[in-house]
Amino acid sequence: MQHNWLFNTTVPKSMDNQPLRYLLHQHWLLPKHLIFSLRSDNRILVNQHYLPVNFPVHYQDQVTLSFIPTDFQHPFPNVLADSAAALAVLYEDANLIIVNKRRGDKTHPNQPGEVGATINHLAAYLAAEDTLPYMVHRLDQETSGAILFAKNPAVVPSLVAEIAAKQVSRTYLAWVSGSDLPDQGTIDLPIGRDPQDKRKRRINGRHALKAITHYHVLRRTVGNSLLAIQLETGRTHQIRIHLAAINHPVVGDPLYNPVHDAPFLLLHSWQLSVPMPFHETTINVTAPLPPHFKTFEAGINSTRQSS
């Protein structure tokens, strides 16, 4: 198991003549406590030399960052390995991995000793290279599609901060009930806990937080619409609650759609756009449609042809 994580990179042109502290905190989104640890141990080098964080860096300067386990609260998470056969990898490099989560699989276990979640399958896959998976974000159990994990603790803070800063773009596909909604729209309704059902959330529920969802219509049929959806916030069940609130619930949603119009939730994490930590490149990944989407769409096409 690796016990230090070394990154060699260069100062981008946009950070020319900016303080090193600004590069680390504002551009690479490292938390202040982590910068303090790196600085205190002289584990930040610029052109192979120590540089005070208030000093400026310059375009194409060589920056070396060296992380150690004590930098992190949980450097080696205890994740039980399950079969890797169920895992479909969409993208992988030395620092992160994006997999195509199956509908019905949890993102992570809820009980000690539990297996069968996506992260358990990923732990088995990464065991061959003596690497652990690290949580970055989550998908609902019934939601399929692209989900991002880290392969070391050093990139987790930056990736989590990128999501919070809306630098990671997430696009979902959903079939919804009804075809009379506008071509595009924004839903801005706060979401909190449902005091009557601990499984659910509700608009203006207990401890409600701001929630914003953007959508546009890709396709309309008699009785249903296919939407592309982007989240500005990331509340639990946000897409499902927001679409139900405008009377266009996700098809097959067992919690928020009172009409049993499909056996499975038709919500899919379709595309992820992720800026690479400590680099100036962005990766774009698309998760292919899962079988239950294809079955539903085949049924729609069959109905259209027979009518």
Explain the overall architecture.
By secondary structure, the chain is α+β, with helices and mostly antiparallel strands. Among the domains are: 5-71, RNA-binding S4 domain (Structural Genomics Hypothetical 15.5 Kd Protein In mrcA-pckA Intergenic Region, Chain A), CATH 3.10.290.10; 169-270 and 296-306, Pseudouridine synthase (2-Layer Sandwich), CATH 3.30.2350.10. Helices cover 19% and strands 30% of the residues. The protein is built from 6 helices and 17 strands. Strands 5, 6, 7, 8, 9, 10, 14, 15, 16 and 17 form a 10-stranded mixed sheet that branches. It has a 4-stranded antiparallel sheet with strand order 1-4-2-3, with no helix packed on it. A hairpin with a 2-residue loop joins β14 (212-221) and β15 (224-231). It is globular, with a radius of gyration of 22 Å. The relative contact order is 0.13. Belongs to the pseudouridine synthase RluA family. GO terms for molecular function: catalytic activity, acting on RNA; pseudouridine synthase activity; RNA binding. One of its GO terms (biological process) is enzyme-directed rRNA pseudouridine synthesis. Residues 95-245 form the Pseudouridine synthase RsuA/RluA-like domain. It comes from Lentilactobacillus farraginis DSM 18382 = JCM 14108.
